[in-house]
Write a structure and sequence with these properties.
CATH class of the largest domain: Few Secondary Structures
Largest sheet: 3 strands, antiparallel
Helix content: 40-55%
Distance between the termini: 20 Å
CATH architecture of the largest domain: Irregular
CATH superfamily of the largest domain: IHF-like DNA-binding proteins
Structural class: alpha+beta
Order of helices and strands: HHEEEEEH
Shape: elongated
Radius of gyration: 18 Å
CATH topology of the largest domain: HU Protein, Chain A
Strand order of the largest sheet: 1-2-5
Amino acid sequence: MNKTQLIEKIADEGNGSKSDAQKFFDAFTNVITDALKQDDTVQITGFGKFYVQKRNAREGINPQTKAKINIPASKVPKFTAGNALKDSLK
């Protein structure tokens, strides 16, 4: 499912227009993004948790040249599914 299909499903499930669903979806992603930028965790009970994980600097290998390279420290977004979401897939 892509973004357009997801927005159509949200509009159908919520009995609303696609433009309203688009606005709410954009607001949702903006709120999550802003929270993660501030190193906050967003936990939606039963669904899951969005958080930022820090990766330490490390040494890697360029697969084409086999040369050693330094990979800088970074922050990456992560998602952990909640129990209700996991249980719904059984």
